[in-house]
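Notes from the pairing session

We agreed to fold both candidates in a single pass and log them together. This is the raw record for the first candidate, unedited. Please don't reformat it; downstream parsing expects exactly this layout.

Candidate A
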Amino acid sequence: MNKAVIIGLGLIGGSIALELRKRCGYTLWGIDANPAHINKATALGIIDNEVDYEAIKEADVVIISVPVHITPQVVAKALDYVGEQTLVFDVGSVKERICKHVENHSNRSHFVAGHPLAGTEFSGPESAVYDLFDGKVMVLCDTEKSHWKHLDKAIEISKKLNMRVKMMPAHDHDLHAAYVSHLSHVISFVLGQTVLDIERNEQQIFDMASTGFASTARLAKSSPSTWSPIFLENKKHVLRSMEEYIKNLQNFKQLIENEDDENLRKTIKEINYIKKILQK
């Protein structure tokens, strides 16, 4: 029976563990710095038991799903313990610094840098769910540095999770992620902050909140321990995306101030093109 070590038993790590058991028949071992997460993941049947890094040499795959600011060190430590067959597969949403950190590691070929483009606003082992990855994209980065047998295993796992695989350089991934993922979280957090600053009556917020507000602000419920490191690790690209957003927001504000109905309609219509992209 195949064996997997899951390092980090939150939403993504826990959900991958559930799928590896259900779809691939893996035995699941867990590592987490938080003892409460180990206990909860064991109680929920996400993992079979807790192990330490020594167990990695016996594992077929190691999934690393920890906050991105500590991922480089965790990947390097996992690579220190790999067996000949072991794939080390990280699933963080910032890739370039991780890849640079381990580029000269003697076991670099065992590592595949991945990012499943899936998630919810919840965190912890209790947030792990089945079918989270169905129909989503798994991005694999700098794959030319991974041994073909480990890359094949990462692709096989991604497909077992019913994901589409896309490959790109780590730098390109971080740039694109800043615009299509990280910026949306920034906007949601700031929207939540703005409403809380202006509207002090919590009941009024609850009563007046439409489905539009709820869907836009949903990401504002996301964990600060997850997202603060992401913003800081991808600082250069996140700041660039924010600058572009602020520029467009200021232009939109100007149209409203000037009561420029014609250009406001024109701008909104042009933006509506995003529907065609998202429906592909």
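Candidate B (folded immediately after A)
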Amino acid sequence: GFIGSNGAGKTTTLRILATFLKPSSGTAKVLGKDVVAEADAVRHVIGYMPDFFGVYKDMEVTEYLDFFGACYRIPSGQREKTVGDVLELVGLSEKKGALIGTLSLGMQQRIGLARVLIHDPELLLLDEPASGLDPRARIEMMAILQELQRMGKTIIISSHILSELQSLCNRVAIIERGKLIYSGSIQGVRNQMETSHIVWVKIGSDPDKAIGFLKTQSEVSEAEMVDGSIRVTMASHDAEVSIIAETLVRNGVPIHGLREEELGLEEVFMRMTKGETQ
């Protein structure tokens, strides 16, 4: 996941990686290939979907995809199957004979994704792929990206819909004013931004007794009743949450639910950035 405020440099970075822009300084490599010195080689291993892209609205879907297959020098005898495969992947097999101009925006976005998949790239660079889509079309797009992830595709995706990135991505990069301020796992940035480790416990009865038992444990710094549940503050991020269940079960307290509080990606982003642009 690649996130940052408007003007932070996300689109510029993706365009450099896609070989559309030359870096003003430094170097950039994709799968070991320099984006300037080996631009042609880079283009064959990536699929780039910009935030706004034009489509040939008077062309049929299969004609459009066949054209791009030819651009990538896919043999003519193989292109029909390839086009059928990518249309099936994006869920538009039944639209193969339709004019692109008659399709909804969500379908056109999926056709755009099919286009970047036509040559089976190793890496996908997606700049706001769900931009402007209604909720259903956005959910369908994310489901397709999850399927691509299961297929082993590496995806770099820029999006302002951080809740969706949170469920899709295993790593995140945060950029501000053209500078990378974090790159790593989502859990890593959560740990970095969390001020305390909170666990919520739902019990059957006698919360005061349960709170008393929990406060005897060195791993627990605080326990209190909040909105019908016990809010437990652990003494450190490394403290074992299992001690809560062990303590309550050992003392005969029935547990109805237990969950760790996690910072959402939106909250992490707001805490880490200042909203500054270049």
